[in-house]
Design goal:
The complex is a heterodimer of chains A (363) and B (303).
Chain A (H helix, E strand, L loop, with lengths): L4 H4 L2 E5 L6 H14 L3 E6 L4 H6 L10 E2 L9 E6 L2 H12 L3 H9 L1 H9 L3 H16 L4 E5 L6 H16 L2 H6 L7 H22 L1 H15 L2 H14 L5 E7 L3 H16 L4 E9 L5 H11 L4 H32 L4 E6 L8 H10 L3
Parallel strand pairs in A: 1-5, 1-6, 2-4, 2-5, 6-7, 7-8
Antiparallel strand pairs in A: 3-4
Chain B lengths: L8 E5 L6 H14 L4 E6 L4 H5 L10 E4 L2 E6 L1 H13 L2 H8 L2 H9 L3 H16 L2 E5 L3 H17 L3 H14 L5 E7 L3 H17 L7 E6 L6 H12 L5 H28 L3 E5 L8 H12 L7
Parallel strand pairs in B: 1-5, 1-6, 2-4, 2-5, 6-7, 7-8
Antiparallel strand pairs in B: 3-4
The chains are: A alpha/beta (363), B alpha/beta (303).
């Protein structure tokens, strides 16, 4: 079943902890899909400078850019960088009822911080952009490189959190307490609302609440639009066209994260594709080690020892990798895909490198 | 120059997967060994400290891991609860107000509140330990954490939150007490990110930076003479490809470490401290001690 998910899916979401090569691998998968004749786009967060240059994303790559190769690809390859702040702004522009409130929101101090700092907003915006591109543009395959978050939850929960935040109308409730309650509950409710407000007031001071309520009243008009959209994103993530790939390295920390991600993906009933373990070491069998030992006999003893040390060091890492990957294989079960990519001897920073990376992947 | 371990607060930061937790613990081991009451603080994370030390999870509890070395995993919600209870001193009222589902969403959604609560807790810990080492979240979140006190000072002019934020901001900006300690790998992206982070912290946030740690540095054991001897050996076609690959791999990584170390030195100017690659099929206390021992021999770490 080598890599045929590239043919089957329309959306592939690459997750994993930071530093495992997600960005590079996403680009390599996209390039391969384009080789196969697909119109493909890779949405990326923060590619390395030289790779960004190779993909035409230096400068402001916040709109899809086509990557021209020679010889030309049989399909098409686009790349785009995600800028979460701008996506949020565009969302406001889309749903704000009139130009004045739009402007007030975008200028509100709290909004300015909020759009970049709200819990999970970066994660949510990646999902949002994915949805927008899926709906509005006509790609055969979209590959999303997810934000390097250590908190798997933030990322998977992002659409849900957004639904809750906007849908539960805590914000509306601060504005007009009572609109959700019958008269009987109202007195009780108002008492607790006053308590809450007074606590916040003591903590934060009046100015803060004022800013907040201003932002809330401005944004309340948008809530409906946000909520419907967040729900649609939530659903899209669970459709058959979508698949989640878990990218990891064999280091124990990354494997821990990968297992945690896997658990979450299963819990959330998201369509799981499989694991890709990047930067592995080949396992060295006894015969190989023996043949090297004999081969080295032709060298001076001092040099022989040095080489032998390097082989032993490499073998230690190969042993570590074996342990880690067998754990993943067990967790993934028979249905999921499993591949590893041996450590390359050079940094990947151009299209040729991406192709080599893909070619090195074995399953 | 004040030795690194004589500070009050160290913020170990860098891209995901570069070894922040290992460095935090290694520094912690060293400080504890010198008799400093030290705490390693994880921030809202999947607890790697307990995993590395192969012990039960730590959680929001100051826990003694080894003599003089403590650990805690802080999260915004518990920090918030602790803070509010300090202010209003009524658990009943807290429960009535803050265990409300709606209010919890509010806390999560209020810009920066969770970061403020975390940094507030870190500040509080600095009062009861000789040294607080923060195993900070990946770069982006770290910046948010380090920036929030200034933002709050500007956004909220009065009230207890403003007072708290000012105290925190003063500690963070006191170069005698606080250092940001970047760690990175000899690879393109982590190095680029470190340089950008350095500029931002140094120029924009005006925070004081400690040495940059360069993790997983390989050193070639081969002298020039060895390399001359190796050339014909490797050219021989009967040699195994895998052996050639292994030697090339180590060689390229040695070269990469050298060139990235130079680049960091040029762009940052400050000291770069290499941490050697640990070849081991597992990573635990023993490996952390190896790192600690190596760091101990470096300038400007110990008093």
């Amino acid at each position: 079943m080598k890599k045929d998910f590239l043919n089957e899916k329309k959306i592939i979401i690459c997750c994993g902890s930071g530093g495992v090569g997600k960005t590079t691998l996403s680009a390599a998968l996209a390039l391969e899909a384009a080789h196969r004749g697909k119109k493909t786009i890779v949405l990326t967060i923060d590619p390395a400078k030289r790779l960004a240059t190779a993909m035409g994303l230096d400068g402001l790559g916040y709109t899809p850019k086509e990557i021209i190769t020679s010889p030309p690809l049989s399909g098409k390859l686009y790349a785009m960088m995600l800028d979460t702040k701008r996506t949020f702004d565009r969302l406001i522009e889309k749903y704000a009822s009139d130009p004045t409130s739009r402007k007030s929101i975008l200028n509100n101090t709290l909004y300015k911080h909020m759009s970049s700092m709200i819990a999970g907003s970066q994660e949510y915006m990646a999902m949002e952009k994915l949805y927008e591109i899926y709906l509005e543009d006509n790609y055969d395959l979209i590959i999303l490189d997810t934000p390097p978050t250590r908190h798997a939850l933030d990322f998977l929960d992002a659409p849900k959190k957004m639904i809750n935040m906007t849908g539960n109308s805590l914000l509306k409730w601060f504005l007009k307490p009572g609109i959700f309650l019958g008269k009987t509950n109202f007195r009780l409710f108002r008492k607790s609302a006053e308590r809450i407000l007074s606590v916040f007031d003591r903590l934060a001071g009046f100015a803060f609440l004022h800013e907040l309520s201003q932002m809330v009243s401005l944004m309340s008009g948008l809530l409906g639009g946000f909520q419907a959209r967040a729900k649609a994103v939530y659903n899209l993530l669970r459709e058959d066209v979508t698949g989640f790939l878990l990218v990891t390295s064999p280091s124990s920390v990354a494997i821990q994260d990968a297992l945690y991600f896997h658990e979450k993906i299963c819990e959330e009933e998201l369509p799981f594709l499989g694991f890709i373990v990047n930067r592995t070491h080949h396992s060295l069998d006894k015969d190989f080690l023996e043949s090297i030992r004999q081969d080295l006999n032709t060298l001076k003893p001092a040099l022989r020892e040095k080489i032998w040390d390097q082989v032993k060091n490499y073998n230690q890492l190969a042993l570590r990798d074996q342990k880690a990957t067998s754990l993943l294989k067990k967790m993934g079960g028979k249905k999921s895909f499993y591949a590893s990519i041996p450590l390359l001897t050079a940094d990947v920073h151009d299209l040729e490198g991406l192709q080599q990376l893909y070619a090195a992947m074995n399953s | 120059m004040i030795p690194l371990l004589n500070h009050k607060l160290l913020f170990v930061t860098g891209k995901g997967g570069v070894g922040k937790t290992s460095l935090s613990l290694a520094l912690g081991l060293l400080a504890a060994e010198k008799g400093k009451k030290t705490i390693v603080v994880e921030v809202h994370s999947e607890e790697q400290v307990s995993h590395l030390l192969q012990r039960s999870s730590i959680g929001y509890q100051e826990t003694e891991l080894l003599p003089h070395l403590w650990g805690i995993n802080i999260n915004p919600r518990s920090s918030f609860e602790e803070y509010v209870l300090l202010q209003i001193k009524l658990r009943g009222l807290y429960k009535a107000v803050f265990e409300n589902k709606l209010v919890r969403y509010f806390i999560e959604a209020t810009p920066g509140l969770s970061d403020l609560m975390c940094i507030g807790k870190i500040y509080a810990l600095s009062k009861s330990y000789d040294l607080v080492i923060v195993d900070a979240p990946a770069t982006g979140h770290s910046l948010a954490l380090l920036e929030i006190s200034s933002i709050v000072c500007n956004a909220i002019r009065l009230g207890p939150l403003n007072n708290e934020a000012q105290k925190i901001d003063r500690l963070l900006h006191d170069a005698k007490q606080t250092k940001i300690v970047p760690i990175t790998l000899p690879e393109d992206m982590p190095v680029t990110e470190t340089i950008e982070l350095y500029d931002r912290l140094d120029k924009k946030l005006k925070l004081s930076l400690g040495p940059v740690f360069l993790n997983q540095v390989e050193e070639s054991p081969f002298s020039k003479e060895d390399q001359e001897d190796l050339k014909p050996f490797l050219k021989n076609r009967s040699r195994q490809d895998l052996l050639r690959y292994i030697l090339t791999l180590h060689n390229t990584r040695t070269l990469m470490a050298q060139s990235y170390s130079l680049q960091l030195k040029e762009e940052i100017g400050g000291p770069i401290i290499p941490i050697p690659f640990i070849y081991s099929s597992q990573f635990g206390l023993h490996e952390l001690e190896m790192i600690a021992e190596h760091i101990e021999g470096m300038d400007s770490i110990l008093p």
